Amino acid sequence: MRDYYEILGVARGSDEAALKAAFRKLAMEHHPDRNGGSEESASRFKEINEAYSVLSDPKKRAAYDQFGHAGVNGGQGGGGGPGFADINDIFSEVFGSAFGDMFGGGQRRSGPARGQDLRYDLEITLEQAYAGSEVEITAATAMTCEACEGGGAKPGTSPVTCPTCGGAGRVRASQGFFAIERTCPRCGGEGRTISDPCTTCRGHGQVRRNRTLQVRIPAGVDDGARIRLSGEGDAGARGGPRGDLYIFVSVRPHDLFERDGLDLHCTVPVPMTTAVPGGEIEAPCLSDGSPDDAENNRLTVKVPEGAQTGRTVRIRGRGMPSLRSRERGDLVVELFVETPTRLNARQKALMQEFADLCGDQQHPESSGFLNKARKFWEDVTGG
Questions:
Q1: Which residues lie closer than 8 Å to 46 by C-beta, 6 or more apart?
Q2: 201 annotated as belonging to a binding site for a ligand
Q3: Is 184 marked as a binding-site residue?
Q4: Is residue 165 a known part of a binding site?
Q5: What's the pTM value of the predicted model, to 2 decimals?
Q6: Could you report the per-residue pLDDT of 19-58, keeping only the tens digit for each?
Q7: Which fold has domain 4-99?
Q8: Which CATH architecture has domain 114-155+202-253?
Q9: Is 285 annotated as a binding residue?
Q10: The architecture CATH gives domain 258-338
Q11: What is the pLDDT of residues 234-293, one digit of tens each?
């Protein structure tokens, strides 16, 4: 049988800290669950645990140093040595993230716990997004029960220590050569039980109530933005801090404007009688509602002579404000030239006279198109 000091890789005069450090390192390295259930790893792991069980116990170590394996019951380290207590620490490190509750990695839940974060979906208008606004919302949140002050027990009574776990919140069971801890099934890890629950909250310590809150919408907020209201979520358990409330903003589609980043786009009809000679039209725009906004909700837009449908006019600084700077986007006005309809005989005659006076010189786009069309027809017919 191998020497226990050799198994742990330590000198005979090593102190308790050196022994424990060597044991933890080797136990994590050779644990079967970290080595695909290897029989060799299982055997090595058991050997490491046995060595540490003896050497970590001062009496057993003294007997081993004097008589060797014969001094510790033929080389058996015993089932109750300190090595078995430390094995749970090893499991916590190896499996803490996934199996903490099974191997002792979980924590008793009787202390304060932070409340849950909440989500609230808020739809606003483009005008509100442009100018910024204060919006009142009503959200259902968990509140500390006033009747029992969050304790869960009926007023005048108190929770009692859980008889199953003795207030520890966890129970332990031995399996093979190591012990397994798990959350107490009776108290759910609280360490206490409520025999006479509060009639208001039914023992939960919290009740759900509607709360009215004022939410500030910053100017320039975009669709899909998220606003965090710190401490406005659910109440924490056992005196813990409140969670947060997250406002998810959606901007309602507008009848006139479309947003593209900081720019606003708007299509404005232009009478043909204005588009041909050029002139001015009125276009809508957004306003922050302040007295300084003299232009209010309309702008005068100059239409260049001979403007065609699709021509754009850019008004600097009349788009959306930026959330992070003093920059503003532009208002892009797209012109849509209207053709007169339902003309009487006199109007039709004048239009024909106008067309005769203009000739092809005044329709460069039409002339270019007709030239391409004639070539296409000639290629098709071979003419």
A1: 177
A2: yes
A3: yes
A4: yes
A5: 0.61
A6: 888 888 888 888 776 776 678 888 888 888 888 888 988 8
A7: Helix Hairpins (1.10.287)
A8: Sandwich (2.60)
A9: no
A10: Sandwich (2.60)
A11: 999 878 899 999 999 999 999 999 999 999 999 999 999 999 999 999 999 998 776 555
